[in-house]
Amino acid sequence: MLKTVLITGGAGFIGSHVVREFVLKYPQYQIINLDALTYAGNLENLKDIQDSPNYTFIKADITDAVHIRTIFEQYKPDGVIHLAAESHVDRSISNPLEFVMTNVIGTVNLLNAAKEIWETNYEGKRFHHISTDEVYGTLGESGLFTEDTSYDPHSPYSASKASSDHFVRAYYDTYELPIVLTNCSNNYGPNHFPEKLIPLCIHNIIHKKPLPIYGDGKYTRDWLYVIDHAKAIDLVFHKGKVGDSYNVGGFNEWKNIDLVKELCKQMDEKLGRQSGESAQLITFVKDRPGHDLRYAIDATKINKELGYVPSVTFEEGLSKTIDWFLENEDWLNNVTSGDYQSYYKKQYRDS
Ligand code: NAD
Ligand code: TYD
């Protein structure tokens, strides 16, 4: 069956990998990438597939309900994969309302547009909402987040994502809109915007700048290679049970300080620097307010029900990621010029 799949946020980090996966794997689908091109959106991420006959880009803001409805009426998507969001916790602390607008209001606009064009004929239709493990709040030293863990968000970012998840489920319960949700752990990989820990440290190691570690560095995150996330989205979009959520992760926890030391070790080798040279750049800085201690995903459900297994170990994924950044210094230079400099100064000025 010929399908039109509308992907929101497709010019961003994860979205661009999802768009590429779908454009290349499903030539019979029409893939529409809807993105507002905020500071985080970059069409350079999709240069290799931009001329594919089954790919269309539309610049649009999901907070603009009228424009979104017009686009849905024109393209009549059978499937929606919704990634567009404000995604950085530190920015949410400085500007929470922007996160409410895009992550909550924007999501409800998309749900309304899908509900209106699909009316009650939901055959072959699907709304896949992409969310995060951060909605579950924080873990102590032990335990894992399962799909049944209660929501307990702490940052304005995670509160806005939790709210959007609730709306998505409410549209299933109230209108039977055919939804699926995925809650994924921290991603890393090519095209990652250098405001997040791993690409920021890669950029700073290249330029021999301090590597800012919040607090004592014992905070723990669970990392998944971005292409493995894109493959999980493909699987759940096509085979997930309507109304269900799936946690996505690779059982791969790292304390921030250990992760940055591993990064320094690999980069010293690749850059031909002395062993231990980059680790000297590690600098402990003021902690993030409301900093969640530990995230860790129990990915048993997606593994048992859909056979999902990540393709790379963390060490392999990190090595591929560093290689990509070293081979794409122009990309890194382009995104770190202009506005990035003022963001960086403001965020790290007391460090
Ligand atoms: P990103 O910040 O790299 O990209 C977000 C994209 O959304 C950008 O292309 C941006 O232009 C677009 N966008 C922002 N506001 C918009 C608006 N109002 N209208 C239309 N487009 C808009 O984010 P990412 O890291 O790729 O995350 C994508 C999704 O995955 C988000 O929903 C995020 O919550 C979720 N997620 C991210 C991670 C992670 O580690 N990065 C982990 C789990 C879940
Ligand atoms: P980040 O990449 O911002 O992802 P998230 O907050 O969504 O988990 O941060 C990952 C971890 O790294 C988190 O514990 C905060 C920490 N961190 C630093 O220690 N220094 C930094 O400069 C940044 C950006 C993050």
Can you characterise this structure?
By secondary structure, the protein is an alpha/beta fold. The chain has 2 domains: 4-188 and 223-248, Rossmann fold, CATH 3.40.50; 197-220 and 253-290 and 312-341, UDP-galactose 4-epimerase, domain 1 (Alpha-Beta Complex), CATH 3.90.25. Helices cover 43% and strands 16% of the residues. It is built from 12 helices and 12 strands. The chain has a 7-stranded parallel sheet, with helices on both faces. Strands 7-9-11 form a 3-stranded mixed sheet. The protein has a two-stranded parallel ribbon with strand order 8-12. β5 (126-132), α5 and β6 (179-184) form a beta-alpha-beta unit. α1 crosses α7 (226-239), α4 packs parallel to α5 and α8 (256-271) crosses α10 (314-327). The chain is globular, with a radius of gyration of 20 Å. The model has no long low-confidence stretch (mean pLDDT 97). Residues 8-9, 11-15, 35-38, 40-41, 61-63, 83-87, 102, 106, 130, 132, 161, 184, 186-187, 193 line the site of nicotinamide-adenine-dinucleotide.
